[in-house]
């Protein structure tokens, strides 16, 4: 089965992202707006049973942190993907690194660029038009993140939360 790890932002940020995603992201019906912390990976039940305590440990060692989104950006020329850029945050990068060491699958395909996709698989002209408008817009979001989710993929391609891991839960 395919699994992944993500952070779901607040409803306010999801609503803003979805205002674009419903038109420009073919994955809109498959998963809510999110920040991918670990790309999709294959695992059997035994492996997941082994990873869940590791995820609990990582969450317990992580303090809540703040994410900031100020603009739209893109992955051009690699792909015509447009996203809300999550500003660099050491705690977020540290969380990403912890979920790619030890028992976790080593599936880093790209450099970690925290983001929330709002458009992908766009034709060149469509990309240019949409991104041209979005890069003139200012996005002002700031919020505290205090959890991440382990997701699994259903047969229809959609993603569902298997478990939520709250930061610093056992530190209280």
Automatic annotation (TrEMBL):
Motif HXTX 1, residue numbers: 34-37
Coiled coil: none
Alphabetical keyword list: Hydrolase
E.C. code: 3.1.-.-
Pfam family membership, one: 2_5_RNA_ligase2
Motif HXTX 2: positions: 115-118
Record: active site: 34 (proton donor), 115 (proton acceptor)
Domain of life of the organism encoding this protein: Bacteria
Gene3D superfamilies listed in its UniProt record: Cyclic phosphodiesterase
Primary enzyme class: hydrolase
UniProt GO MF annotations: hydrolase activity, acting on ester bonds
Family: Belongs to the 2H phosphoesterase superfamily. YjcG family.
Record's protein name: Putative phosphoesterase GCM10008025_17470
Species in which this protein is naturally found: Ornithinibacillus halotolerans
């Amino acid at each position: 089965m395919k699994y992944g790890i993500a952070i779901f932002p607040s409803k306010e940020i999801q609503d803003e992202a979805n205002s674009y995603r419903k038109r420009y992201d073919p994955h809109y019906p498959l998963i809510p707006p999110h920040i991918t912390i670990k790309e999709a990976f294959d695992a059997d039940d035994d492996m997941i049973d082994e990873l869940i305590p590791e995820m609990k440990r990582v969450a317990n060692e992580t303090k809540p942190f703040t994410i900031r989104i100020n603009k739209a950006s893109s992955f051009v020329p690699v792909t015509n993907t447009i996203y809300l850029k999550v500003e660099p945050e050491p705690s977020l990068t540290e969380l990403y690194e912890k979920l790619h060491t030890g028992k976790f699958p080593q599936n880093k395909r790209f450099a970690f660029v925290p983001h929330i996709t709002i458009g992908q698989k766009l034709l060149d002209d469509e990309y240019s038009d949409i991104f041209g408008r979005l890069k003139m817009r200012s996005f002002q979001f700031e919020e505290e993140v205090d959890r991440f989710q382990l997701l699994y993929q259903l047969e229809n391609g959609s993603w569902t939360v298997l478990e939520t891991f709250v930061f610093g839960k056992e530190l209280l």
